[in-house]
Each structure stands twice: as C-alpha cells, then as structure tokens.
Write a structure and sequence with these properties.
389 residues; alpha/beta; 7-stranded mixed sheet
C-alpha cells in the first residue's frame, strides 16, 4: 500500500482510495464506503461534485498560482463576496487551519503590543480546545496530551479558561490579556458545545479588559453547524475568525476574517503566505459560497444533523452514551468500555468512514450535501457495529 511509503506520523489505516462520488468512496479493490468523515470536515460538498470539478478545471486552464505581490481577478471576486456574506472588513488568505490560527495569534500579539505594551500579550483559549499542530497553535490547544515534553520549549503567553464556567470569567482577564480565542464547537476535544450566553459574557469580559475576541472556526465554519459561521449563532461577534477545512471543498485554503479595531493591525510584511489565496483555491471557494447561499441549504444541514442524532439516540442507551452536536458536526460517546478508536476501525472494516474525538467519542462530520439514502446506509452500518461491542 502507498501508506507504507509515507512517514507514518498519521497512523494511517491500510486502505487506499481511488475515487469518490457524492458521500461514497471506493478503495483500490473496488470496496464501497459511506463517508461520514468528509476528509475531517473538508469535503463539504462531497466527492466529484460537478460544479466544483468544473470550476477547478476551468481555473487550472487559466492560472493556478501567482505570488501575493499581485492580486488575481478570482481572488478579488472571492474576497468581495466572502466579506459581503460574513460582514467582516478584511480577509487574510493562507492554506490551512493552523496557518489561520497562527495569523490570528500574531495579530492578537501585535494588537496587545499596540494597546498596552509588552505586558499585554496573554491569549486565553478554552480547556479541551484544539487549534493546530504548529508550536504556537499546539501551545494554544487546551489539552495536555498535545504538549509532550519532546516538543518543548513551547511558546509562552497562553492561558486557558474552562468553557461554560461563569465564575472563571469574572477574574480571568486583565491588562495583560491580548485576546480571548473561542473554539465554537470543540471538535477534537469531544464535540463539546459552547453555551451562547457564556460565550457572549466571556467576550464582554475580555473586551472590558481591553482585549480582542477571536473565534476558531477551522472546523465549524462554512455551514458545518447549520449557519455560515458558528459564531453567528453564538452571537459574540468576534473581531477575528480563523477558517479552513470546508472553505474550498477539498482544495487547501485557510485564513482569517478581520473587522473593527482588529482590521488595521496588520501592515505590509507582518504576515505572509506564498500559496495563500491562490486563484485555484479562490475559484473553488466561490463554488462553496454559492452552494451555501442556495435557499434551504443551511437549513438542510441542521435538519440532517437532527435526523442523524435522533436515529442514533434510537439505538438505545445500552448501545450509545451521550450524543452531542450542531448541524453535521456530531459526537457520540461510547459505552461498555468500548474505545472510540476500536469502533472506528470496525466501522472502516464494514464500510463506514468516521473519526474519533478523544478516547471515548466517535466523531461524525459527513459532507453537508449528503443524501438521506447515504445517511441511512451509514447509520445501518453504525448500528450493527455498535451492537457488536
């Protein structure tokens, strides 16, 4: 298998995929798999989505990449539409979620420096959060298991606060705080839901202390939770939003949206990306934006998520534990001592692609346009496997 020729820092399964259509994938042996993973929430429009294929092919014939000394026509169009739809003032383009969060961290540090000097450098994140694999984003991640000693020393200036803890926000922020970074739904941490009232109160407290407020929407953005941005539903009006994953339907794309007092922080040379926002990615991004704005599309994400959670709850309390989620971002707790990774492996064997979110939680993030036929096929596999544990 090809995986044996690649550095095994992913612990990849011994399956080689060759094609996909809709929310179904096929391996090198022709075996069929229902996709409840979507490349970890990346393939938001599934596989071989004709408008996306057409747009990428057309753009590839025109121009794939230019450096950021210049702008492209499709880049200007995408930025204009993205800002109009999200209500932000400016956008920075990168390639990944970690890069988006790195940009947000650098912006927050510079903002703190300009509005409080050297002491205003602390960035608060939430316990159980996940923000990326670079040294800074690993440090920002609120889970000790992502901080092994072998990667030390870590970047200083980060603190965590417990989500939905009302007492904590009364004393957390002061004149050393540069920013509060909220992961709207904690994907890697267990698909944990952040309370809207708490998020607004925490944001108010951080702003009262002179800090800016940022949202990590790497996984929750672009319709994943049933709204264009998850922070729209939470209502805390972030100054900065990081994004990636589903932004371009599978083409690497990421960045940050910026508004208000955060919009003027970056100056030429502060932060750059060679590949970020290239014409190919922007052409793909436009397709995603146009699909999401179609009447009923985002509502269908909410409806499908509710349907999946209801069906899984119907398996019974002897089969599954707590079920959490928003839209098509769902976490299912295992019971009877079953390990989520063992369940994931068994599901793969039976033809269902899933992921884990910690040792005890199975994570389901299917394409946003998954059909009910594919949903039901996947649920049947899921039920049979869970009954076997």
């Amino acid at each position: 298998m090809g995986s044996k020729k690649v550095v095994n820092n992913y612990g990849s399964f011994d399956v080689t995929f060759v094609k996909g259509k809709g929310s179904t994938c096929y391996d090198i042996n022709g075996k069929k798999y229902i996709d409840f993973l979507a490349g970890i929430a990346v393939n938001c429009l599934g596989h071989n989505f004709k408008p996306l294929v057409k747009a990428v092919s057309k753009q590839a014939k025109k121009q794939i990449h230019i450096c950021n000394y210049f702008v492209s026509d499709v880049g200007v169009q995408y930025a204009t539409e993205l800002l109009a739809k999200t209500g932000f003032d400016a956008v920075y383009f990168g390639n990944s979620g970690a890069e988006g969060n790195e940009a947000a961290i650098k912006l927050a540090r510079k903002y703190g420096w300009e509005n409080g000097g050297e002491k205003r450098r602390v960035i608060y994140t939430l316990e159980s959060s996940f923000h990326g694999r670079t040294l800074a984003t690993l440090t920002a991640t609120g889970q000790d298991k992502f901080h092994p000693a072998c990667f030390a020393p870590y970047v200083d200036g980060f603190k965590t606060i417990k989500p939905n803890d009302w007492e904590a926000i009364k004393t957390a922020f002061d004149d050393t705080t540069a920013a509060l970074l909220i992961e709207c739904v904690q994907g890697e941490g267990g698909v944990n839901i952040v309370d809207s009232d708490w998020a607004k109160a925490a944001a108010d407290a951080a702003r009262a202390a002179g800090a800016i407020v940022m949202a990590d929407e790497v996984q929750t953005g672009f319709g994943r939770t049933g709204t264009l941005l998850a922070s729209d539903a939470l209502g805390f009006n972030p100054d900065v939003v990081s994004f990636a994953k589903g932004a371009a339907g599978g083409v690497p794309f990421g960045g940050i949206l910026i508004r208000g007092k955060a919009a003027s922080v970056f100056k030429a040379g502060d932060h750059q990306s060679t590949f970020g926002g290239n014409p190919l990615a922007c052409a793909a991004g436009l397709v995603v934006l146009h699909e999401l704005e179609k009447p009923g599309f985002l509502e269908s994400v909410t409806e499908k998520g509710e349907y999946i959670r209801k069906e899984i709850a119907g398996f019974g309390s002897k089969v599954v534990g707590e079920i959490r989620g928003k839209g098509l971002m769902i976490g299912v707790d295992m019971i009877n001592g079953a390990k989520a990774l063992d369940v994931e492996k068994k599901l793969l064997e039976k033809g269902l692609l899933t992921s884990t979110a910690g040792a005890n939680t199975l994570r389901l993030v299917p394409p946003l346009n998954i059909s009910y036929k594919e949903i039901n096929e996947g649920l049947a596999i899921l039920k049979n496997v869970l009954l076997s544990f």
